[in-house]
Every structure is written in structure tokens, then in C-alpha cells.
């Protein structure tokens, strides 16, 4: 059939019907798609020619592969993996290695015993096919696994471990496949040479390919994260996200890198940014279904009955050896990792499904000139294995999760899809320094301790921020039973404007003293001379029992020197460093405390308690959870927040909220519109780590339109 539109209509229509029929038979949709492709392809009714499959519709395969790889990256979140990395790593390595070895060795023996003639002409040919099948066998099916978990609403340690293993497993499969392609290519071109030389060359070439692919994915992820955070409509996110993903995949293909690895690295980069904005994943999820139907149906259309008779036993052997490798390897890894009995018993069975990534790797084989002659045989073998694993795999996964007692949980893996008001539509950031205002103190004056225990020092350098900094420092000093100390740092050497600087400093001190006195405190002042502002502040801090250091600037000021001062002081100070980023009118009545971890309260608690004990404040603790979090998890964390409030002895009004969110930044900025002040853990990374992970707190401060206090814990 030459009409590409008609071909697509047939594939989508019949694929949908076959998936529904498969569902009635309690089979996965993937099986229906493959059967539809088989029926329409050259081996079936012949309505779609091989030229159409490999040429005109082949582009959809590349698009689907990038989306699948990108989706796998979402599950490689470092924050979740680091707690289970040893267990997950051991299980993943053992089941991956054993699957590769059993399939490679087993299929090689079957090939030598059953396959005669084209394309297996020599023992080297048989070895080449066996090594490629071994590499493909490492992959599992994230889509099938996730579908089963959603269907039975599974949640618990087995489910969590399974998701992490599947994500790591597919990353390992792509890397192993790249290495094996290089090894096999050398074997076929230099069959009489030693194996060591091509192995070394292949590993080095693969390391370069993997490194280039990962770098390309990281750059794409950073660019996507930068752009998506600045877009209003999800339709815009879809256009930008799809264009950059496809560009990344095609550039990787042109440079002979791995599009799959690049796609995974892109997803990995986005999900591990401090903003954790996963809206792009959700937007692309709505675009995926027709592409995945085409992808799996085209895979089925590649099956040739002539090859099926030749490769029938080989396909069954592939399925059996892979299943044995997954089960035995996972069980061995679970024992080495000393996991719970439920994980050890269930995890092997749950890894049986295989589909998307394996089929994608099969498609890639035809792109290598030296390997294309094996494409038909390997495609038929792997698709036979996929067909069988998609029949038995989901059933085994469901059985394993039910047996572990994690089925029918309370999890809701599909959070409600509701439209949110975009933050820029409700709280524009002021653009003028004159917008900075300080409301006079009208609450009861504070009672200063006659014997202060230490000092809270704050740097004064600008008239716009002197009042706000003084108020915050005085409130915190009151909490610590300490004395507020205003510090101004002057150059160490003589300067032409020395007298003018002194006069300006005295003016700042007078303003600060007036503000502190209005709160009921007498302010200490200090002028120090030092080579740098940070050195002067740290020297003053060392001369006192300093409980905290406050620095501040207007958000409209973009002074790089100030950022350097913050980084130096935060790195060297023996106490917390609070950076107050002022904008608009300074109110403190409604306080928002966004959290991404309960442990952040250890850093923020002094400032929260200090504000709660003066005036009339309403504090909202907003704990941000991943979008797939269940209601049970949300309720558990609300109770943890309430327990912390009781332990901290806070008596003012506090609201505890734990919410699932697709975008941390969007959620915080939206909530900020209903609050006056934000308090956050700075969590500032440096160098390459900062470039890759970003800073959620800094992004919130820039976009919230509210004064924000960023707290740097000592010793970081």
C-alpha cells in the first residue's frame, strides 16, 4: 500500500481493536498491537508493504523510541535511588549479567544445533547473533510493569524496588547493547584475530559513545528545563519538548551516538533538577498512545512466517533462558543484598515482561551495515520472546505483587489532571527598587534579655534593605536571647571617599537603630575594615558568640559581588547564614514554608519558631511530594508535620499540607500569591553540581514576587 495516510489509519484502527480484544482475553494491549501489525504486514494480509514499514512509517519508530527512553529517565530520580541503591544495584547487576550469559550461551548452542544456512554461515555468525540476543535480553518492559502496578494499585517495598530495578535495568541494557554491537562488528570484520584487541577497542569506543550520548542528553535536559519553566500553556510545552527531544535523537544518530541513552539522560536531568518539574513528562504522555500503537504494530509487521519456522525454537529458547536468568539472577542479587523475604520471593517473577526497549534495540540493528543481514532473524526471535513474555510476564508480575501483599493498596498512580493558574498571571514581580516598603511595627514590643547570650549579626550596605534586615535580625535575636549587631565593612586601605563612606555608614546605623528600638531592642553597631566584605563579616562573627548571620538585598538588584559574599560567608561561617531577598511590601503575617524533605525543618526551625512567638502569624508548612504519591503517603506526611509542630512547641496557627505536584516551582509560586513571606532551605550546590541540579530556592525567590528568606545550614 502506497498511501501512507491510509496505512496509518489501518494500523491505528486495527491496533486499537486488537488491543480491546486482547483486553477481553485478559492479555496486555502490547500483544494486540503486535498481532495487528502481523495481520497487516507482508506475512499477513499484505496490506502494508515492507517499503512502507521500513521507509515511510519508520520515522514514527524513532519518535516512539525517544519518548520511551525519555520516560525511563523519569524513574531514575537520585533522591529515591540513593536510599536503595545498594539493594537495587546488586539485584539489577545480578539479574542483568545472568540474563545476558544464559541467553548468549543458550541461544548459541540452539543456533548451532538448529539454524542451517542464511544468515548463519559460520560459528562467528552464530556467536554474533547470540551476543546481540544476550544484550537485548537484559531489557525489561517499564510500560507493562507500570500498567500492572496501576491496575492493581500496588504500593510498598516490592513495588518501589521493582520500579527502580526496571529503570536501571533498561539503562544497563542500552549500554551493554552498545558494547556488544562494537564487539560483534569487530568479530565479523576480523574473525581470525584475537578477541582481546577488538574487545578493548570496542569498550573504548563504547565508552566514548556512552559519554557523548549522556552529555548530549544532559545538555538537552538543561535546555528543556530552562524553557519549560518559562512557558504558560501545556500545548507550548508539548511543541518545545517534542522538538528538542527529536532534535536530540537525530543529532545523536548523526554523530553515531545512542539516541536511547541521550533520551534517558534528558529525562534523568529534568527529574533530578531541584525544581523537579515533571509536567513535560505528563504532556508527552498524552501524545504517546498513537505513536506506541504504531511502534508495536510495526514491530509485529516485521515478523516473517518464513523466519518464524526457522527461528521458532530459537525464540522459545530465548524466552526460557531469559526468564531463567531474570528469576535466578534477581533471587541471587536479593540474597546478596539481604533484602526482605517478600522482595526476594517476588522480584524475579516481576521482571519477566519485555517489550518497548527490546523492540527498539532490534530496530537499531538494521541501521548497522555489518549487522543488517541478521536483522530478520533477530527480529523474529526477539518478537517471539516479546510475544510470550507479554503473555506470561504481566501475569507473573501481577501474581508476584499480589503474593507480596502489595496489591489493592491505597495508591493512586494517576493524580487528578487539573488546570492551575499560572503564577505570572497572579503575582507579577515588582520591577522597581522603590517598591520596597516596610510596614511599621504595631504589635507588642519585645522584651530584650538583660544578659544576652551571643549575637545575631547582619550586614548593612544599602538604605533600601536596612529596615527589613534589622527587623528580621531583631526577631531572631529575641528567639536566641541574643543581641542584634549591625555590621558595616569598609575597605582596609585608605580611599578618597573614606569620609563619605563613614557618613553613609552612620546614616545606615541610625535607621537600623530606630527600627530595632521600635521593636523594643537596643542595637549594637560595629564598623570593621577588611579586604573583602565576607572577610569583615566573618571576622566580626568570630569575635562574638554569633548565633546567626543575616545578609540581604533587593531582588531587583542583580549584583554578582553580593552572590560571591553569600557563597564565601555561607561556606566559612560557624552558624546559619540567612539571606533575605526583599521585594515589594514586607509583611510577615502569612508565612509559607515549602519543603521537599522533612529534614529541612532542622535548618528552618529557628526562624519559624522566632516568627511564631511574636505578633500574629499564620504559618503554612507545604510538603511537596512526587505526583504518583498516594493519599496514604500524603496523610502520613501531614501527621509527621503535625508531630514536628508539637515537638517544636509552636502555639501560633499552623497549617500542615502535603501535596503531590508535577512542578515544585509552579506549586510554590502559585501558593506564594496567598502569603507574605517565604522561608526555604537554600540547599545551594556549587560548580557543575549547581549547573546540573539548579536551585529551587533561588528560582522561587526570583519568581514568587514575595520576600524570601533562604537559610544556609553551617558546615555544608
Can you describe what's shown?
With about 725 residues, the chain is an alpha/beta fold. The chain folds into three domains: about 400 residues, Na+/H+ antiporter like fold (Up-down Bundle), CATH 1.20.1530.20; about 150 residues, HUPs (Rossmann fold); about 130 residues, Rossmann fold, CATH 3.40.50.620. The chain is about 60% helix and about 10% strand. The strands form two sheets. A ten-stranded mixed sheet has the order 4-3-2-5-6-12-11-8-9-10, with helices on both faces. Helix 22 links the parallel strand 9 and strand 10. The longest helix is centred in the first third of the chain and has 37 residues.
Quick structural overview:
By secondary structure, the protein is of the alpha/beta class. Helix content is 61%, strand content 10%.
Task: Please supply descriptive tags for the structure shown above.
12 strands, two-stranded parallel ribbon, ten-stranded mixed sheet, 3 domains, alpha/beta, Rossmann fold, elongated, Na+/H+ antiporter like fold, single chain, 716 residues
Amino acid at each position: 500500500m502506497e498511501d501512507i495516510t491510509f496505512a496509518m489509519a489501518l494500523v491505528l484502527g486495527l491496533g486499537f481493536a486488537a488491543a480491546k480484544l486482547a483486553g477481553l482475553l485478559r492479555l496486555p494491549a502490547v500483544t494486540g498491537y503486535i498481532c495487528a501489525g502481523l495481520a497487516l504486514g507482508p506475512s499477513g494480509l499484505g496490506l502494508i508493504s515492507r517499503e512502507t514499514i521500513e521507509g515511510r512509517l519508520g520515522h514514527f519508530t524513532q519518535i516512539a523510541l525517544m519518548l520511551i527512553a525519555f520516560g525511563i529517565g523519569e524513574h531514575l530520580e537520585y533522591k529515591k535511588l540513593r536510599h536503595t541503591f545498594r539493594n537495587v544495584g546488586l539485584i539489577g547487576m545480578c539479574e542483568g549479567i545472568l540474563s545476558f550469559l544464559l541467553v548468549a550461551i543458550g541461544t548459541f548452542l540452539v543456533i548451532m544445533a538448529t539454524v542451517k544456512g542464511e544468515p548463519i554461515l559460520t560459528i562467528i555468525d552464530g556467536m554474533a547473533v547470540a551476543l546481540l540476543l544476550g544484550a537485548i535480553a537484559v531489557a525489561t518492559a517499564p510500560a507493562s510493569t507500570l500498567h500492572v502496578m496501576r491496575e492493581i494499585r500496588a504500593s510498598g517495598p516490592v513495588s518501589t524496588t521493582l520500579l527502580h530495578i526496571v529503570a536501571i535495568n533498561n539503562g544497563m541494557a542500552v549500554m551493554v547493547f552498545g558494547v556488544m554491537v562494537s564487539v560483534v562488528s569487530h568479530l565479523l570484520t576480523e574473525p581470525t584475530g584475537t578477541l582481546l584487541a577488538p574487545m578493548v577497542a570496542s569498550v573504548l569506543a563504547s565508552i566514548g559513545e556512552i559519554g557523548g550520548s549522556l552529555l548530549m542528553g544532559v545538555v538537552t535536559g538543561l535546555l528543556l528545563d530552562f524553557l519549560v519553566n518559562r512557558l504558560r500553556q501545556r500545548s507550548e510545552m508539548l511543541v518545545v519538548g517534542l522538538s528538542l527531544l527529536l532534535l536530540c535523537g537525530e543529532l545523536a544518530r548523526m554523530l553515531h551516538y545512542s539516541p536511547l541513552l541521550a533520551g534517558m539522560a534528558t529525562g534523568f536531568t529534568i527529574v533530578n533538577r531541584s525544581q523537579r518539574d515533571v509536567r513535560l513528562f505528563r504532556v508527552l504522555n498524552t501524545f504517546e498512545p498513537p505513536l506506541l500503537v504504531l511502534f508495536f504494530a510495526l514491530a509485529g509487521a516485521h515478523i516473517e512466517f518464513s523466519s518464524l519456522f526457522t527461528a521458532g525454537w530459537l525464540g522459545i529458547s530465548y524466552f526460557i533462558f531469559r526468564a531463567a536468568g531474570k528469576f535466578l539472577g534477581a533471587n541471587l542479587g536479593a540474597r546478596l543484598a539481604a533484602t526482605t523475604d517478600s522482595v526476594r520471593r517476588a522480584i524475579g517473577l516481576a521482571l519477566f515482561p519485555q517489550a518497548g526497549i527490546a523492540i527498539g534495540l532490534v530496530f537499531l540493528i538494521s541501521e548497522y551495515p555489518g549487522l543488517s543481514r541478521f536483522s530478520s532473524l533477530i527480529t523474529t526471535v526477539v518478537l517471539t520472546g516479546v510475544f510470550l513474555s507479554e503473555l506470561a510476564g504481566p501475569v507473573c508480575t501481577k501474581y508476584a505483587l499480589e503474593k507480596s501483599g502489595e496489591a489493592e493498596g491505597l495508591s493512586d498512580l494517576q493524580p487528578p489532571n487539573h488546570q492551575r493558574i499560572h503564577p505570572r498571571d497572579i503575582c507579577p514581580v515588582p520591577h522597581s527598587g522603590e517598591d520596597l516598603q516596610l510596614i511599621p511595627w504595631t504589635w507588642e514590643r519585645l522584651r530584650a534579655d538583660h544578659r544576652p547570650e551571643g549575637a545575631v549579626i547582619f550586614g548593612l550596605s544599602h538604605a533600601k534593605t536596612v529596615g527589613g534586615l534589622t527587623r528580621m535580625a531583631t526577631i531572631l535575636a529575641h528567639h536566641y536571647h541574643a543581641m542584634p549587631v549591625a555590621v558595616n565593612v569598609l575597605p582596609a586601605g585608605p580611599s578618597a571617599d573614606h569620609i563619605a563612606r563613614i557618613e553613609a555608614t552612620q546614616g545606615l546605623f541610625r535607621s537600623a537603630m530606630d527600627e530595632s528600638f521600635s521593636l523594643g531592642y537596643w542595637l549594637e553597631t560595629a564598623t570593621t575594615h577588611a579586604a573583602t566584605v565576607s572577610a569583615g563579616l566573618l571576622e566580626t562573627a568570630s569575635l562574638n558568640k554569633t548565633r546567626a548571620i543575616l545578609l540581604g538585598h533587593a531582588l531587583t538588584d542583580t549584583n554578582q559581588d553580593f552572590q560571591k559574599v553569600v557563597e564565601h560567608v555561607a561556606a566559612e561561617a560557624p552558624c546559619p547564614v540567612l539571606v533575605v531577598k526583599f521585594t515589594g511590601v514586607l509583611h510577615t503575617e502569612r508565612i509559607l514554608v515549602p519543603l521537599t524533605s522533612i529534614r529541612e525543618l532542622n535548618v528552618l526551625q529557628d526562624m519559624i519558631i522566632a516568627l511564631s512567638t511574636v505578633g500574629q502569624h499564620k504559618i503554612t508548612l507545604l510538603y511537596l511530594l512526587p505526583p504518583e504519591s498516594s493519599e496514604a503517603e500524603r496523610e502520613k506526611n501531614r501527621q509527621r508535620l503535625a508531630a514536628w509542630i508539637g515537638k517544636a512547641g509552636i502555639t501560633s496557627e499552623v497549617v500542615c499540607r502535603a501535596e503531590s505536584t508535577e512542578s515544585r516551582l509552579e506549586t510554590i509560586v502559585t501558593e506564594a500569591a496567598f502569603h507574605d513571606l517565604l522561608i526555604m532551605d537554600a540547599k545551594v550546590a556549587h560548580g557543575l553540581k549547581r549547573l546540573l541540579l539548579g536551585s529551587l530556592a533561588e528560582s522561587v525567590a526570583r519568581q514568587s514576587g514575595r520576600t524570601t528568606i533562604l537559610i544556609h545550614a553551617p558546615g555544608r
